[in-house]
Specification:
Elements: H1 2-9, H2 23-51, H3 77-91, H4 97-122, H5 131-151, E1 157-158, H6 164-170, E2 193-194, E3 198-200, E4 208-210, H7 219-248, H8 254-273, H9 276-281, H10 291-311, H11 320-337, H12 344-347, H13 349-372, H14 384-387, H15 406-426
Antiparallel strand pairs: 1-2, 3-4
Helix pairs in contact: 2-3, 2-10, 3-4, 3-10, 3-11, 4-5, 4-11, 5-7, 7-11, 7-13, 8-10, 8-11, 8-15
């Protein structure tokens, strides 16, 4: 709203009226505002949750310090959502299809998580919303995002921009190459604007992969098939990210801290993808308008940092599914919109390993139970972060022999997350 107000005031030539044109200025404002909202509003929300006795129900799994968390307020994801939505409404371009899709994702996944937490807390059903309904609603969101990416005319990539200097010379009146405001006036040739199923992939010369190579058909049917494959991939990414973040939310500050690291990287990638000069230098696709995603991710990171003030060990509030499903959905959708979803296995390596640990544990337990009559374990406990908290449990993997303190586990996971983030950015220059 403030962005659009300043946009209107530009016609009066007010000093400083053009500051909102700069992505960096709006990103800083969004981040600081989000952090302030999480810090200031968060305390009041925690007090309300405590008065309403909206506390976490804890099952005794024999983990150190676990039962001490009983009664800690949950549903704190509301703090994160407020910290995201308010700055986005204030400082983002609300006409941007990217911002609208991310707002839809935030509210949709937030509603799923809120319903799940509501069932657990108020109806005293530890299982919450059924896994089936969660998956159905996540697939519906993925399908809606996929169809929008397929048909919306504003979601395009620009091709044939290898010789940037020529373009700048020919359009010098429309492009400011000395600042972040690389502006185009719509004078691109029609063949430059494409609806594409291409995405970024590391370790190859062109840095690009087109989903059409997976299509078994050619011609008209091939066109439909490649978009169908792309939509299915979008659905898979959104559901995987959302559930992966949810599984990681098992220790104080683990999911929030790890997600903040991921959010910083996606924000940087969105910034670079939306800049003509930088995207050309790094040989990645130029995607007009993705700078707005960078502002959105700034709000996400600011909100998560503010939330960590209360969620760090020992936590005063848990984000619950309200927060974890929302964060995962935002990460998945934003990665898709900037065509970086195939980098997520590296960038979100923590979420991936957490999810795989659960699948491996369940699969191996069922297999050994059928074969030997008694289930056996790969890890002492799953998801993976609990494996490091447990000792004295027979499992294929016994290291570490002694249980580690929760704060140490969380800090080490953050360090691994930072290393994965650096590796993801480094991949942009590896061909």
């Amino acid at each position: 709203m403030i962005y659009h107000l300043f946009e209107y005031l530009q016609q009066f030539d007010i000093p400083g009226g053009r500051l909102m044109n700069y992505l960096s200025f709006r990103a800083i404002l969004a981040s600081v505002t989000a952090m302030a909202i999480s810090l200031l509003v968060g305390k009041r929300i925690i007090d309300v949750l405590q008065r309403k006795q909206i506390g976490e129900t804890i099952r005794d799994l024999g983990l150190e310090g676990q039962m001490q968390k009983k009664g800690t307020p949950t549903m704190g994801g509301v703090i994160i959502i407020l910290g995201i939505v308010v700055p986005v409404l204030l400082f983002c371009n609300l006409r941007s299809i990217y911002v609208l899709l991310l707002l839809l994702t935030t509210l949709w996944c937030g509603a799923i998580g809120f319903t799940d937490d509501y069932i657990k807390v108020f109806r005293h059903n530890k299982e919450g919303m059924s896994e089936r309904w969660k998956l159905i609603l996540q697939v519906m969101l993925g399908f809606a995002i996929g169809l929008t990416v397929c048909y919306n005319p504003d979601i395009v990539v620009r091709e044939k921009v290898a010789d940037t200097s020529v373009y700048v010379e020919e359009n010098s009146s429309n492009v400011d190459v000395n600042s972040e405001r690389v502006i185009t006036s719509g004078s691109w040739k029609t063949e430059d604007v494409v609806k594409s199923t291409k995405t970024t992939i590391p370790f190859v010369k062109s840095h690009e992969f087109d989903y059409k190579v997976l299509s078994p058909f050619s011609g008209k049917w091939g066109w439909y098939a490649k978009w169908a494959i792309y939509v299915l991939m979008i659905i898979l990414v959104i559901t995987a990210c959302s559930n992966g973040t949810n599984l990681t939310d098992g220790m104080d500050g683990l999911s929030a801290g790890t997600s903040a690291i991921v959010g910083v990287v996606i924000g940087i990638l969105a910034w670079l993808s939306g800049n003509l000069i930088d995207s050309n230098y790094l040989n990645i696709m130029y995607i007009p308008g993705t700078g707005e995603i960078a502002i959105f991710m700034s709000a996400l990171v600011g909100s998560l940092i503010g939330f960590l003030w209360y969620n760090s060990y020992p936590a005063q509030v848990f984000m619950g599914d309200t927060g974890s499903l929302t964060i995962g959905g935002i990460i998945g959708v934003s990665a898709i919109l900037i065509r970086k979803e195939l980098l997520l296995p590296i960038l979100c390596g923590i979420f991936l390993v957490e999810s795989l640990s659960v699948l491996m544990q369940r699969g191996y337990f069922k297999y050994t139970k059928r074969k030997y009559g008694q289930g056996r374990r790969i890890f002492k406990m799953a998801p993976l972060h609990h494996h490091f908290q447990k000792e004295g449990i027979p499992a294929l993997i016994q290291s570490p022999a002694r249980a580690l303190p929760e704060a140490k586990i969380v800090t080490r996971f953050w360090i691994v997350g930072i290393l994965l983030a650096v590796a993801t950015l480094a991949l942009l220059k590896l061909r």
